[in-house]
Write a structure and sequence with these properties.
Number of helices: 28
Radius of gyration: 42 Å
Helix content: 40-55%
Number of strands: 11
Distance between the termini: 54 Å
Strand content: 5-15%
Number of domains: 4
CATH architecture of the largest domain: Alpha Horseshoe
CATH class of the largest domain: Mainly Alpha
CATH topology of the largest domain: Leucine-rich Repeat Variant
Strand order of the largest sheet: 2-1-4-3
Largest sheet: 4 strands, mixed
CATH superfamily of the largest domain: Leucine-rich Repeat Variant
Length: 719
């Protein structure tokens, strides 16, 4: 019979005593339980004792958390939290260095427990810690234990960070700024400051003033990975707590100090593996940097802004040497305006008379204009080639540069989450981001050229604009998932992922989604293949029995004579002969020539055929080569030469003749037909398994029964 739900079986240990195995009644007061345990070991003053877990964090058992005790838990009888807090409170004031050190070490460990922390804080224990830090000259181990205990006590939020004295904060700052200081003390000091920064604007300004960015960069360059991590944590805390203007200034200063290149070389590509915490900080740094583009992204173009109009005009001037602006031109204002509108249309603006209207949509707003200008100024040859190449294409086939740039900027903002708040747990940063200044703009330069390349591969028109950009989005996201370490590598991989590759990947994923690539389904495909190939063979032979009308091609390539060929219903003889124009399916008796199938020796195709090798035939016709085949027959090895009317007929006849010769069907049509038939057959057979996942491994076959007595014995059946 199972024990009641409010009773748990546990073990209780004590140093120097035999453990007790008891059934703990959760309804019984904890004080009574402790009294029974102490009585069993003949211990007086049960109120001075408490229970705590023997393993893990060794949390004290209280009335509030006793419900978490599970069957089989091992507890330990120890000094009660109030007694322990009193003892350590006295111990850290001892003049004996060893006692003080041991007390602080035990305090740092026990302070993780909320019950003990509350008892110690209620005794004004934090005041003692402040005194050790502010007034004392302790360094090394004592100071490290003190700061660790302080951190653990503050984690419970019993005391506000804003109550810390200026003297205490300055002392913590001094530990960070000292060169000759124990690394563990500096790590703890950095952690304290990191926790302090988000709590109030006053503390943020104080830390920002006292701990310079240069000092944090110095800590980032050390070989101690933990110190490096804590320095990065404080830097991120300062960036997140700063105003937009302060954040922009800090990021600009970090850029001047080449922080990205340092991170790329010494942290991302260091010999030590990158931990989850550092990965998160790098993600936040990337996110903060990319979000600097948010202001421009959310700002629409102002058609009355002289600066913005000049940027827009610079795009046109960089692409075209306008006749209207050449020296000595006497064009009227109307003529000049007409030329400008024409050039803006060639640039791909939808509203060519007032291109500023295209940039009124925000997002992407002015960020799209910034990207276009950056592309035109930093890669002028690629910019000119893009614009001029498309302005010379047929109407509707040109790839509109401006419209594509605006949409691409929006796509990049969505992929890179520009303008979105940082996640508190994400770790997805791009290594190549830290290897390149002006990352967003340089990425745009690569991707806008990708748009033009994909446009040509898809042979797109203006109606296909959204489809092309959808493919480009997929190319970018798939390549980013590979985490390329540099923009050059990204460029190589994204250009290799062309439109045909995207189609193949989509097909494969669709098959996976339909579970047609599951192991049992693949096995079923292999079992169905022979049956379906036989079906295709029968279809090919039936087609040969129906026959086909062929044209004879003379040495002058004149297609002036017709002849017909068909297989006899018993598949033993090929009948053929000349026919008149207009006869489509002559009876088999009207075809005078015959070739017994048994006399057929081989099938030749393409360049192997004798009628494609004739010297008098002049220049080889590629179309004829693709449709030519010949049958070699009889002992003398005569040839019957064919030129199929279509590629489809060529595939059917070559497959059919191979079947008659006892060989495999090799045409591309065979594979296409087989895929179609397999797909249909599989869907029909799996119809009853819709929405049921198919396991990769078949379930185990059960063992045979120990006896077969349950079988009916027919020999004893009644007569």
């Amino acid at each position: 019979m199972p024990p009641p739900k409010d009773v748990v079986k546990i073990a209780i240990q004590m140093v120097g005593a035999i453990p007790q195995l008891i059934e703990l009644q959760q309804t019984k007061p904890l004080a009574s339980v402790l009294k029974d345990v102490c009585d069993a070991w003949s211990l007086p003053n049960a109120e001075r004792y408490a229970l705590q877990y023997a393993d893990g964090r060794q949390t004290y058992i209280t009335e509030s958390n006793r419900g978490d005790i599970k069957n089989g838990s091992i507890l330990r009888l120890t000094t009660s939290p109030d007694q322990e807090a009193e003892r350590l409170y006295s111990g850290i004031q001892s003049n004996n260095v060893d006692v003080k050190t041991d007390s602080l070490k035990k305090l740092a460990s026990l302070s993780q427990d909320v019950t003990f922390a509350q008892e110690f804080i209620n005794r004004n224990g934090l005041k003692l810690i402040f005194y050790i830090v502010e007034e004392g000259n302790d360094t090394g181990e004592i100071l490290a234990h003190t700061l660790k205990a302080f951190m653990e006590l503050m984690e419970h939020d019993f005391v506000s960070w804003e109550t810390l004295s200026a003297a205490f904060i300055k002392k913590i700052v001094s530990y960070v700024n000292m060169n000759a200081m124990d690394a563990s003390v500096q790590q703890l000091s950095l952690s304290i400051l990191e926790n302090m920064v988000p709590t109030s604007r006053l503390l943020f300004e104080l830390v920002k003033k006292e701990v310079t960015v240069d000092r944090l960069l110095t800590h980032l360059q050390v070989t101690n990975t933990q110190l490096q991590l804590k320095a990065m944590a404080l830097l991120i805390a300062l960036l997140l707590a700063a105003t937009d203007a302060e954040r922009r200034d800090m990021m600009e200063y970090l850029r001047e100090k080449n922080i990205r290149q340092f991170i790329h070389k010494n942290i991302i590509h260091s010999s030590e593996p990158l931990g989850d915490e550092m990965a998160h900080y790098l993600y936040v740094l990337q996110s903060v940097s990319l979000n600097l583009h948010e202001r421009r992204m959310r700002t629409s173009m102002d058609p009355y802004s002289q600066e913005q109009r000049e940027l827009l005009q610079s795009l046109r001037q960089a692409a075209f040497e306008s006749e209207s602006e050449s020296p000595g031109s006497n064009f009227s204002t109307e003529r000049r305006r007409s030329l400008c509108a024409k050039e803006f249309r060639k640039l791909g603006f939808t509203n060519n008379s007032n291109p500023a209207e295209d940039l009124r949509r925000a997002p992407p707003g002015l960020l799209a204009l910034d990207n276009m200008v950056y592309f035109s100024r930093h890669t002028p040859s690629a910019y000119s080639r893009f614009v001029l190449e498309n302005s010379s294409r047929e109407d509707k086939h040109e790839c509109p540069f401006a419209r594509s740039s605006i949409q691409l900027t929006l796509i990049l903002c969505e992929i890179l989450h520009v303008g979105e708040p940082c996640s508190e747990t994400a770790q997805a940063f791009y290594p190549m981001f830290f290897g390149q200044d002006h990352f967003f703009e340089e990425l745009f330069c690569i991707c806008i050229q990708l748009v033009n390349k994909t446009w040509k591969e898809m042979r797109a028109t203006q109606e296909d604009f959204d489809k092309v950009l959808q493919v480009v989005r997929e190319q970018i996201t798939r390549t980013l998932c590979l985490k390329p370490t540099s923009l050059e590598l990204f460029k190589t991989r994204v250009n290799a992922l062309n439109y045909s590759e995207i189609l193949k990947l989509r097909q494969t994923e669709r098959l996976h989604q339909e579970e047609t690539l599951a192991v049992p389904v693949l096995e079923l495909r292999e079992r169905l293949k022979p049956e379906l190939l036989e079906l295709i063979r029968q279809q090919r032979l039936l087609r040969l029995c129906e026959g086909t009308l062929f044209r004879k091609i003379s040495s002058r390539r004149r297609q002036d004579k017709l002849w017909y060929c068909r297989l006899s219903p018993n598949h033993k003889v090929l009948h053929y002969g000349d026919v008149e124009e207009g006869v489509h399916s002559p009876p088999i008796e009207s075809l005078p020539e015959k070739i017994p199938v048994a006399d057929m020796k081989a099938l030749l195709i393409g360049k192997e055929c004798p009628h494609t090798k004739e010297k008098s035939s002049g220049k080889q016709n590629k179309d004829v080569l693709e449709l030519a085949f010949s049958i070699v027959y009889d002992v003398e090895e005569y040839c019957l030469n064919f030129i199929a009317p279509t590629r489809y007929e060529f595939c059917l006849w070559t497959d059919g003749l191979n079947v008659l010769l006892g060989k495999e069907m090799t045409s591309e049509r065979t594979q296409t037909d087989l895929d179609v038939l397999l797909s249909m057959e599989l869907k029909l057979r799996l119809l009853d398994l819709e929405n049921i996942s198919i396991p990769d491994i078949p379930p185990p076959v059960p063992k045979p029964p120990s006896n077969l007595n349950f079988c009916y014995d027919f020999s004893h059946a009644e007569q």
